[in-house]
Amino acid sequence: MKPRYVELADQLIEAIGNGTFAIGAALPSEMDLSTQYGVSRATVRSALQKVQDLGLISRRKRAGIRVEASKPRLAFEQSMSNVEDLMQFAVLTERHVQSIGEISASPALAARIGVETGSRWLRIEMLRVDPAKADRPICWTDVYLDPVAGAAIRRELRKNTGLICEMVEERCGRAVQEVRQEIRAVGVPERVAGTLAAAPDSHALEIVRHYVDQRGLVFEATISVFPAERFTYALRLARQD
Fold first, then answer.
1. Could you tell me which residue ranges the HTH gntR-type domain spans (predicted)?
2. Among 1, 89, 163, 205, which has the minimal tally of Cβ within 10 Å of its Cβ?
């Protein structure tokens, strides 16, 4: 069952697509949408964020909510400000597991994901796919899981579509306290280029994430490669008073 904000976002996307709200037209205010659909304003805001991330609307002070396009943009855009935004990414995409196996962290890998050389990890190789563009995967991701956590959820990985860190919290009680991440420009690695339907060494974005639990320990690390023009990473910076 979809979260209520996703259902509302789908309704708004359909209304924009069929012309109920034409390009350039104003959408009802958050308060009016809340009343019209019988949901909280927080639900409305989350739904509008999803629609905005697809490039369909803009939201500005005084100008209100305006329709900017009738069809979603080609690239997947993720607005990131907290762990909940990662969860939204999981809701909007599908996880296609390619392989699961145990590895020993080499010196190079240990340095990249912040763990001890020689430590054992469960590695999950997978794709993140936008269901609307299944032939052009959003990214390839190598997931490295603490072996205890990995053993607890291994059988569910090909069935459950949610975030892996949420599965770990549910089964092991290890909640994400913070996510540390590094972003850099790379070339698409040859070993995953074919699966990503991208040319080897073509432009890509690499995001390395470290999932830290309540004790300050890394229990999951991910290395994701996003081919150019398939993903936009949106970050909002607010001035502190």
1. 2-70
2. 1
